[in-house]
């Protein structure tokens, strides 16, 4: 008997035994529930990058191998899916997501004004005017997604301006980065925020020289405080909103996502309810927003790791070391350019941004959450902020298996990736910055020296790190295929130029960053992320095999079906 044949039989038997124990079902029968054949099976497994067919039994992968071998598990009730040349891959993993804010900010009737939807500032103001005209008096209005860099005729809203446009409605306008929002007086009154309200730790209610609120709030804690009454007004609609977000993720081939701004008090019941639904489309792993209160709370301790069949679990804590490059509040060793764009952003000469916390606060919070047993995930873009976070991580003494995380890491340098490897921290890169904002990074914000190597994926891999890619909830549309394309080509959407070609990575590494290594960051890699017998059947069917598609056509690949634990969550029944 050949080695591959022995591996197939043992793998199928082991998968059936594991599934029987886990699911409490009789798996002794030989027939599979589903067999996929007729196209390449991209396994993302070591030593066997592709196979001809795959079988699913009881929600788990029961066999991967040749078509003849796998079809041998077909029974009278087996559903056989003919891929017709399409590719079967592990379902994608969004290692840094925000399904709650996706649903809250983008689900109808919320108003999506991201530059991908509304390309001009004039269009943004028209959207607001239309909403004021059609929304009953007193009801809140939320616009999500303004972007001064891509909507070049836009200027930042002020409280006085929004008061004039919408005197009878509470209005909030959220930036596409999610790191700032602008509101009128009615919205501040609804939230109970006055000129005397103290700033939350790591955030700010911006005041003018006279101490009055300008209308701007910065960073998550301040935005949450402003927005909470709007979310409360949604009531039971919040479930429908997040369910809508799950659908968007499934349509992008995603079966697992994180919630990277989790608030247990307001969201625990919602996520638990969705996880109990028989047609739940996405597995969620949550990182709660860190605060001094939670750091001091003896009840905020990590329990036993959740298995992949738990469709919701909190697994870590989240900090924001700095902000967004598009807001001018990332902490860098190099300055922003001094030009018309940065002046429109309100930045002065030689601007380096800053931190949301002092280095001492980052160190104290990191130590507290690690001592509580949590995985820690920290938003950090600027290279100066990366140094602060790596210092704090090193001081915790966290074991490597804790898998501390660095989020976004736009300006992270090669030497810092090497240090992250030594500390035991891994990065999740917002690689689509290169595609959507690459031209802006070079021409308007940082120049070629610091803008071109933005999101240096190859440097991270060269340092021996396991990396992931993400779309960050509302900021860019969920698009793992687009992330893979950008990582491979590093071309910009505007001019089509290639940013730092030496930072391009091969397609296998890019696929792994959206599947197995993203699952590893969420402590799920032994159960999902690759197509191997015994793992859960989280699958996606693509219109073409990305391993054999030319780099310039990768972005054209479409997601045709998605499965979560063998249950189809997107696509028609022939997929």
Structural category: alpha/beta
List unreliable stretches of 5+ residues.
Answer: 1-10, 12-29
Range of strand content = 15-25%
Shape annotation: globular
Calculate the terminal CA-CA distance, rounded to whole Å: 34 Å
Number of helices: 19
Mean pLDDT: 92
Enumerate the strands of the largest sheet in spatial order, edge to edge or round the barrel: 6-13-14-15-16-17-18-19
Helix content: 25-40%
Query: What is the radius of gyration?
Result: 24 Å
| Number of β-strand runs | 22
How would you sum up the major sheet?
8 strands, parallel
Question: Could you outline the blueprint of secondary structure elements for this entry?
Answer:
Elements: H1 3-23, E1 34-42, E2 50-57, E3 60-65, H2 67-71, E4 79-82, E5 87-90, E6 92-94, H3 99-106, E7 111-112, H4 121-134, E8 141-146, H5 159-165, E9 171-175, E10 180-183, H6 185-191, E11 204-207, E12 213-218, H7 220-234, H8 237-251, E13 254-262, H9 264-276, E14 283-289, H10 292-295, E15 312-320, H11 340-344, H12 359-371, E16 375-380, H13 383-396, E17 404-408, H14 414-423, E18 425-429, H15 432-451, H16 457-462, E19 468-469, H17 480-489, H18 507-514, H19 516-521, E20 539-542, E21 559-564, E22 567-570
Helix pairs in contact: 3-8, 6-7, 12-13, 13-14, 17-18
């Amino acid at each position: 008997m050949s080695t591959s044949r022995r591996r197939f039989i043992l793998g199928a038997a082991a998968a059936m035994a594991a599934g029987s124990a886990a699911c409490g079902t009789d798996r002794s029968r030989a027939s599979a529930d589903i067999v996929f054949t007729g196209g390449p099976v991209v396994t993302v497994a070591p030593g066997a990058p592709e196979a001809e067919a795959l079988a699913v039994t009881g929600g788990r992968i029961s066999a991967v191998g040749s078509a003849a071998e796998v079809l041998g598990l077909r029974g009278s009730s087996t559903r056989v899916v003919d891929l017709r040349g399409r590719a079967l891959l592990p379902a994608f993993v969004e290692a840094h997501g925000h399904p709650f804010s996706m649903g809250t900010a983008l689900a109808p009737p919320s108003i999506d004004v991201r530059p991908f939807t509304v390309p001009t500032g004039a269009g943004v103001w028209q959207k607001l005017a239309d909403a004021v005209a059609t929304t009953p008096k007193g009801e809140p209005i939320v616009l999500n997604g303004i972007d001064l860099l891509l909507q070049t005729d836009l200027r930042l809203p002020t409280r006085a301006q929004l008061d004039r446009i919408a005197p009878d409605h509470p209005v909030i306008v959220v930036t596409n980065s999610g790191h700032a929002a602008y509101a009128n007086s009615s919205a501040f009154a609804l939230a109970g925020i006055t000129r005397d309200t103290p700033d939350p730790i790591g955030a700010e209610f911006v005041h003018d020289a006279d101490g009055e609120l300008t209308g701007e709030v910065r960073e998550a804690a301040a935005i949450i405080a402003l927005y909470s009454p709007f979310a409360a007004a949604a009531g039971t609609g919040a479930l429908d909103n997040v369910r809508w977000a799950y659908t968007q993720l499934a349509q992008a081939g995603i079966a697992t996502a994180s919630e990277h701004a989790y608030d247990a008090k307001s969201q625990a019941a919602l996520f638990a309810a969705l996880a109990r639904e028989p047609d739940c489309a996405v597995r969620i792993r949550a990182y709660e927003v860190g605060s001094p209160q939670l750091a001091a709370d003896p009840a905020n301790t990590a329990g036993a790791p959740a298995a992949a069949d738990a469709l919701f679990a909190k697994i870590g804590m989240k900090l924001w070391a700095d902000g967004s490059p598009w807001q001018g509040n990332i902490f860098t060793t190099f300055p922003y350019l001094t030009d018309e764009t940065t002046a429109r952003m309100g930045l002065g000469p030689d601007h380096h941004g800053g931190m949301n916390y002092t280095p001492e606060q980052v160190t104290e919070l990191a130590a507290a959450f690690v001592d509580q047993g949590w995985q820690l995930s920290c938003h950090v873009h600027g290279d100066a902020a990366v140094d602060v976070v790596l210092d704090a991580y090193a001081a915790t003494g966290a074991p490597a298996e804790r898998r501390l995380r660095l989020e976004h890491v736009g300006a992270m340098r090669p030497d810092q990736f090497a240090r992250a490897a030594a500390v035991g921290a891994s990065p999740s890169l917002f690689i689509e910055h290169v595609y959507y904002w690459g031209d802006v990074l070079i021409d308007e914000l940082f120049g070629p020296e610091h803008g071109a190597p933005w999101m240096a994926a190859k440097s991270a891999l060269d340092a021996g790190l396991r990396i992931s890619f993400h779309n960050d909830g509302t900021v860019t549309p969920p698009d793992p295929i687009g992330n893979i394309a950008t990582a491979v080509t590093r071309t910009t959407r505007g001019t089509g130029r290639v940013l730092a070609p030496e930072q391009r990575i091969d397609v296998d590494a890019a696929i792994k960053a959206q599947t197995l290594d993203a699952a590893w960051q969420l402590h799920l890699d032994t159960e999902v992320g690759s197509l191997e017998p015994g793992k859960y059947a989280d699958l996606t069917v693509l219109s073409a095999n990305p391993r054999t598609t030319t780099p310039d056509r990768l972005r054209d690949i479409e997601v045709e079906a998605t499965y979560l634990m063998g249950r189809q969550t997107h696509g028609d029944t022939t997929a």
